[in-house]
Amino acid sequence: MIKFIKAQPVLMISFLLAAATMFIVPPDAQYIGYVNRTVLIQLFSLMTAVAGLRSIGIFEKVTDLLLEKAGTLRRLGQIFVLICFFSSMLVTNDVALLTFIPLTLIALGKADRRTVILTIVLETAAANLGSMLTPVGNPQNLFIYDSYKLTAWVFIRTMAPAGILSLVMLMLLTLLLPKEKCSVAEHSGGQMQAAPLAGYSALFIVCLLTVFRVIPDWVCFIAAMACALIFNRRLLAKIDYPLLATFVCFFVFVGNIARIGAVSDFFSGVMNGRELLVSAALSQVISNVPAAVMLSGFTGSGTQLLLGVNIGGLGTVIASLASLISFQFYRRSEGADSVRYMAVFSAVNFGMLIMLLAMQEMIIHI
C-alpha cells in the first residue's frame, strides 16, 4: 500500500480532496453529473490504441528509418527532439517519452553526460510542447476540449502561436549540442503483423472521430474493447487506470467545491481575468492535468485555461508528470548525474515558460 501511495501521489491527493469535500457535500443524485463520461472513454480508448501500436513495434521501426539520416550528435538530437514534438501530438507526451527516451539513452551511450542530459531535457520539453497542439496530445486537452465544447479551429488558433514559438526555441537550443560524429546503434522492434496494425490504426481513427464528435463515445469504447480482446488482451492491463481514477476524484472534488458558495466565489474571483497565470502557476505544484480539472469549474474561458495548463507543463519536474518519466529513465542510466540534470532541466524549462507566458500576455493585451 505504501509503495502504491509513493508511486501515485497525485491520485492520493485527489482522493483525499474528494473525500474531504464529501463530508461537506454528502453524496446525492447530483454526483452522477460530476463525472465527464466522454473524457474517460476517450482516454481509455486512446490509451488502448497507442498501447497496441507500441506493442507491435511501429515506433521503433519509424525511429530506425529516421535515424539512418543522423551523422552528428547535434543532428541526432534534433531528430529525437522533432520526433518527440510531432509524435506527441497523436500518441500523447507520456507515450512519446516512454518510447523515445530509452532509445536516446542507447543511441547516445558513448556521448558525454552533458550531451545526454541536454538531449533528454529538450526531448521532454518537446513532448510536452508538441502535445499541446492537438486535443488528443494529452489528457488535459481532451478534458478542456470536451468540457468547453471547443471546435478544432478554435483549438488550433489558440495553441498555434505558442506551438510555433516553442518549436523555434527548441531548434535554437539544439544548436548547443556538439557537432561530433556519432554512431547510431540500431535496435530490433517487434514484428508488425498486418491484421493488428490495421486494427490498432482503425481504432486510433475511431478515437479521433470521437474526439471531434463525429461518432458517439460508446462506439469508441466498444471498438477499444473489441480491438483488445481480438488482438491482445494484455493491452487492458497496460491502461493507466490511476490516471482515470485521478480524473474521477477531481471531478468529485470540483463538483462539490462548486456547490460551496463561499469557496466557489473565492476561486472564481481569483481566476477572473487571470486564467493564464493562475493555471500555469498551479500546474507547478500539482501538475497540469489536475490543475485543468480543478480550475475548470471556476472560469468560462476555456482557451485561456487551455493555454495556461499547457504552457504550465514547463517549469518544475512535476508540472507535467510526463517529465518524471524522462527523469526516472535518466536517473537509472549508467553514470547519471541527477543534480546536473535538474539544473539543466530547470534552466531550459523555466526559460521557455517565461518566454511563452510573456508572448501570450502580449497577445492578450494587443
How would you describe the overall organization of this protein?
It is a single chain. The model has no long low-confidence stretch (mean pLDDT 86). Helix 3 packs antiparallel against helix 10 (194-211) and helix 9 (152-173) packs parallel to helix 16 (302-311). 47% of the residues are buried. The protein is globular. The protein has 18 helices and no strands. By secondary structure, the chain is mostly helical.
Termini gap: 52 Å
The gyration radius over C-alpha positions equals 21 Å
Order of helices and strands: HHHHHHHHHHHHHHHHHH
Count of folded domains: 1
Strand content: under 5%
* Sheet of most strands: none
The average pLDDT score comes to 86
**Shape call:** globular
Tally of DSSP helical segments:
18
Question: What structural category do the secondary elements indicate?
Answer: mainly alpha
Query: Unreliable segments (pLDDT under 50, ≥5 consecutive)?
Result: none
Approximately how much helix is present in the residues? over 70%
Total strand segments: 0
Which helices and strands appear, and what pairs or packs with what?
Layout: H1 2-7, H2 9-24, H3 37-55, H4 58-67, H5 73-91, H6 93-107, H7 113-130, H8 139-147, H9 152-173, H10 194-211, H11 217-231, H12 241-258, H13 261-271, H14 275-286, H15 288-295, H16 302-311, H17 322-331, H18 338-365
Helix pairs in contact: 2-12, 3-8, 3-10, 3-11, 5-6, 5-7, 6-7, 6-17, 7-9, 7-17, 7-18, 8-15, 8-16, 9-16, 9-18, 10-11, 12-15, 14-15, 14-16, 15-16
